[in-house]
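testing teh design pipeline on a random one, pls ignore if ur not involved
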């Protein structure tokens, strides 16, 4: 057998994502190139590694066994690279973070300078919904998680990164109001919701429950971007974090509707398990956050204060 490290890496990514298309995106390769690498790898085994049923790719039991061994090889190669850099006096290792979907507008700015300074650190960042983020943290699969709503069932340490403001918004056709609309006016507005498990949806529903407002749910969408585009198209109104609306607010595609009780304010929390022993890389990152978060806030998020009128 003459399979290469690259083939192992491609196969491992396909198994993780259960998709050649998604693997090609993550690996920055074309889809045909990924398919060729998978075929060349498969040709070295008499037993199938994967199978396609309908249009869905499945990994066979044998494929899963090969994947586990391939992952061990990949990890050992990574360890060699990290150890080489460590002998040169560089911080090395892997930093793993799980981020709620709207947090993609926040987390990169709190990582950029740290990663540029420490080139031996590899980042693995999973962007998903709140439930999966909490599961990854609970299962000790990540070093940190970024959430806007703290979990009730887990004992976690917490570092606040940024204030999170959620406003009632509509598209550019919204007329300018001289005064705030009242809570009961919202019940007649067709509202666009995020999916179950979303932190934004949780905050939104808590607000309506607290103020005893019965609302009309027009549509449920599975991403912040989908809600944003639906609002711009005039399909309804929504409660959205300002953090993901900078360009749309600046060019007028989305407008903030002044409403009683808004903005709803939460915090962006970087959290980790209380009993977790942080790796040297995770410890170094936490030190960086504590020493630099005020500068990151000022350099990259001061626009929020201008838009919200502070």
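output:
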């Amino acid at each position: 057998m003459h399979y290469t490290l690259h083939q192992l890496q491609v196969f491992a990514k396909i198994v993780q994502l259960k998709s050649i298309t998604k693997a090609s995106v993550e690996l920055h390769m074309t889809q045909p190139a990924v398919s060729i690498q998978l075929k060349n790898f498969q040709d070295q085994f008499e037993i199938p590694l994967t199978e396609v049923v309908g249009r869905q790719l499945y990994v066979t039991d044998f494929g899963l066994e090969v994947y586990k061994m391939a992952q061990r090889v990949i990890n050992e190669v990574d360890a060699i690279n990290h150890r080489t850099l460590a002998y040169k006096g560089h911080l090395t290792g892997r930093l793993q973070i799980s981020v709620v979907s709207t947090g993609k507008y926040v987390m990169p700015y709190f990582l950029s300078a740290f990663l540029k300074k420490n080139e031996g650190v590899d980042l693995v960042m999973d962007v998903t919904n709140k439930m999966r983020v909490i599961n990854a943290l609970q299962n000790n699969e990540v070093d940190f998680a970024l959430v806007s709503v703290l979990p009730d069932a887990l004992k976690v340490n917490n570092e606040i990164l940024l204030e999170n403001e959620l406003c009632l918004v509509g598209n550019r056709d919204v007329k300018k109001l001289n005064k705030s609309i009242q809570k009961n006016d919202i019940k007649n507005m067709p509202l666009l919701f995020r999916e179950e498990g979303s932190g934004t949806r949780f905050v939104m529903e808590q607000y309506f429950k607290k103020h005893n407002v019965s609302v009309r749910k027009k549509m449920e969408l599975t991403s912040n971007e989908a809600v944003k585009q639906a609002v711009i198209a005039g399909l309804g109104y929504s409660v959205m974090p300002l953090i993901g609306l900078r360009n749309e607010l600046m060019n007028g595609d989305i407008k903030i509707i002044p409403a009683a009780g808004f903005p709803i304010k939460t915090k962006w929390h970087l959290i980790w398990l209380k009993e977790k022993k942080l790796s040297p890389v995770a410890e170094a990152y936490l030190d960086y956050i504590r020493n630099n978060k005020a500068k990151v806030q000022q350099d990259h998020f001061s626009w929020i204060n201008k838009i919200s009128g502070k």
